[in-house]
């Protein structure tokens, strides 16, 4: 019996290869090209006039074709992974295409009027329905108002974030965090009405760029606090402990170790806050009023700003006014872009050097 069992042949399974079939690297590009062609063909056949419908159909076909091709060659498990990657790419394209379209339209329409004369002259003596005039008074007002708002909000927001991360504990810190979260969702018109009620109506001050700056600072502060707080939390505690172990006071540790380590993220947060307030129109409309004249004094008299200028010119509706509105919008985008580039340069310059 035992010999019979020993002599019975044992079935040996065939050797399986550890490698499996894979799609060529050019497959995603080919599938994307085919999906776009099929989506455009379906759009033309169905008589769809909106290119958005063509794009959505193409994206859907891309995901389905990717899943089908991958499941057939590589298996269902790998197909699910490729579908997830495809969805990420589709969402990225859906987010980028409107931005590129907006940028292209703004640049193409804005360059029709944008020239040195437009940047160096105001609308003084020019009717809104006529051609001519410039944006100098609005650009000057935006620079002063955003600059004053940043000088108010950035230090307060930075110190508040330092308190919450380095010192805050207990009910006071929780209350500050709660009110910061509440302020994050405040509409811009509410901030403008608050300054209008206190600064203008109760204290009796007139319209000025400074009043608009205070409203913009209210909108800017919670963004600075939240972004700075998160950046400070990313600083390793080992750096703080090493500094304190050398006998360095806590305030100096924060100033010389913590803040320089997080300066890049802090600067990015401040720039996000600046971009948040640069395009606000409601507080400026309530508190600054707008003017066609050049007013370099932000503490007295009405001023203008780029978003208010765009609103006023577009509301006129004539070809010349709309062209000026597009040019002012292009100047506004360039203004924010230049600020971001300068801020990133400062952040790199002040960041601690890690190389030798």
Distance between the amino and carboxyl termini:
78 Å
Strand-and-helix sequence, N→C?
HHHHHHHHHHHHHHH
Overall mean pLDDT: 85
Mind summarizing the main beta sheet? none
Form type:
flat
Strand content: under 5%
Oligomeric state of the chains present here? single chain
Question: Which stretches of 5+ consecutive residues score pLDDT under 50?
Answer: 10-18
**Count of helical stretches:** 15
| Proportion of residues in helical segments | over 70%
3D architecture notes:
The chain is mainly α and 356 residues long. The protein has helices at 2-7, 27-46, 51-73, 76-110, 116-120, 136-167, 171-184, 188-202, 209-233, 237-245, 250-261, 263-278, 282-287, 306-316, 319-350. The protein is built from 15 helices and no strands. Mean pLDDT is 85; it is low at 10-18. The longest helix has 35 residues, at 76-110. It is flat and about 75 Å long.
What does this entry show, briefly?
The chain is mainly alpha-helical and 356 residues long. The protein is 73% helix and 0% strand. The protein is built from 15 helices and no strands.
Can you tag this structure with a few keywords?
single chain, 356 residues, mainly alpha, 15 helices, 73% helix, flat
């Amino acid at each position: 019996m035992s010999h019979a069992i020993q002599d019975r042949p044992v079935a040996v399974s065939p050797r399986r290869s550890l490698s499996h079939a894979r799609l060529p690297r050019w497959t995603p590009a080919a599938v994307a090209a085919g999906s776009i062609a099929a989506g455009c063909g379906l759009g033309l056949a169905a008589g769809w006039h909106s290119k958005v419908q063509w794009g959505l159909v193409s994206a859907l076909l891309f995901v389905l074709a990717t899943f089908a091709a991958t499941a057939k060659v590589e298996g269902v498990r790998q197909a699910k992974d490729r579908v997830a990657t495809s969805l990420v790419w589709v969402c990225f394209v859906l987010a980028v295409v409107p931005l590129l379209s907006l940028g292209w339209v703004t640049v193409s329409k804005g360059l029709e009027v944008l020239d040195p004369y437009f940047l160096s002259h105001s609308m003084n003596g020019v009717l809104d329905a006529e051609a001519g005039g410039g944006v100098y008074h609005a650009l000057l007002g935006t620079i002063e108002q955003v600059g004053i708002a940043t000088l108010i909000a950035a230090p307060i927001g930075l110190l508040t974030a330092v308190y919450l991360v380095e010192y805050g504990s207990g009910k006071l810190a929780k209350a500050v965090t709660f009110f910061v979260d509440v302020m994050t969702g405040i509409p811009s018109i509410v901030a403008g009405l608050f300054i209008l009620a206190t600064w203008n109506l109760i204290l009796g001050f007139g319209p000025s760029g400074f009043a608009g700056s205070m409203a913009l600072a209210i909108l800017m502060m919670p963004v600075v606090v939240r972004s700075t707080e998160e950046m400070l939390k990313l600083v390793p505690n080992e750096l703080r402990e090493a500094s304190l172990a050398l006998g360095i006071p806590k305030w100096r540790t924060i100033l010389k170790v913590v803040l320089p380590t997080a300066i890049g993220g802090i600067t990015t947060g401040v720039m996000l806050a600046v971009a948040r307030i640069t395009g606000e129109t409601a507080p400026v409309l309530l508190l600054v009023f707008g003017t066609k004249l050049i007013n370099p004094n932000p503490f007295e008299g009405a001023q203008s700003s780029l978003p208010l200028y765009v609103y006023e010119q577009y509301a006129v509706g004539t070809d010349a006014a709309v062209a000026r509105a597009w040019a002012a919008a292009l100047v506004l985008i360039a203004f924010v872009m230049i600020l971001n580039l300068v801020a990133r340069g400062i952040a790199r310059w002040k960041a601690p050097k890690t190389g030798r």
